[in-house]
């Protein structure tokens, strides 16, 4: 896997995948930075998540800034609960607004959202975990998956591909995937518990996913692991793009749960059919 920067700054508030948004004018997609919001330390300043201890008023003001820049309202946004699982949810027009103003109204128990309906802003939140963006360029289906190590090991990415095959008749060659900014293999150190969870996936990923350290721990490359699992699921290499940004290396731009010892905000990924 080679990483390249597939995102470019749109404003201080967020990045956009320039290739996708140029090639597919029916698409809205992006990833927020930590800049340009109203939240106070340690959530400064563009925290988009309601579950981290930040002022709800500040989070809603930040979300309002985001949707306004997209020409939308909070009633167009949909959020899942995010429990570090692998459950997926098909979002319909009647779901619009769920989770946008309160965590209690989010779609419960899900870490993946997808839809083929226009004008629904799918949104999920991150501070090191891997954001996976999906589009079927033929059928115009879009999706997001929140892939921490548990979701990655549970193969939430391949599960999205299988779901689209079953529900929409998607062909893997028509599905494109973007692996967004997240903690890199340069910074993500794990112990035997995490490495043991990868045992059932042996043979499905390349050697560079896990690098042993002299201290008995390991460096784990979650971007590479998601990339390899998606290839195993039939997505062509040319259809998978990987951001080079590491959230832990660049806390000037991004929130990092690891780097900031758990006391930090959350970034938002978003995708929508116009």
From TrEMBL:
Family indicated by similarity: Belongs to the purine nucleoside phosphorylase YfiH/LACC1 family.
Keywords assigned by UniProt, alphabetized: Hydrolase, Metal-binding, Transferase, Zinc
GO MF, one annotated term: S-methyl-5-thioadenosine phosphorylase activity
Transmembrane feature ranges: none
Protein name as catalogued: Purine nucleoside phosphorylase
Lineage, highest ranks first: Bacteria, Bacillati, Bacillota, Bacilli, Bacillales
Cofactor(s), names only, from the UniProt record: Zn(2+)
A Pfam family the protein falls into: Cu-oxidase_4
Entries under Gene3D superfamilies matching the protein: CNF1/YfiH-like putative cysteine hydrolases (3.60.140.10)
Catalytic activity: adenosine + H2O + H(+) = inosine + NH4(+); inosine + phosphate = alpha-D-ribose 1-phosphate + hypoxanthine; adenosine + phosphate = alpha-D-ribose 1-phosphate + adenine; S-methyl-5'-thioadenosine + phosphate = 5-(methylsulfanyl)-alpha-D-ribose 1-phosphate + adenine
InterPro entries, alphabetized: Cu_polyphenol_OxRdtase, Cu_polyphenol_OxRdtase_sf, Cytotoxic_necrot_fac-like_cat
Domain of life (superkingdom): Bacteria
Job description of the protein: Purine nucleoside enzyme that catalyzes the phosphorolysis of adenosine and inosine nucleosides, yielding D-ribose 1-phosphate and the respective free bases, adenine and hypoxanthine. Also catalyzes the phosphorolysis of S-methyl-5'-thioadenosine into adenine and S-methyl-5-thio-alpha-D-ribose 1-phosphate. Also has adenosine deaminase activity.
CDD domains: YfiH (cd16833)
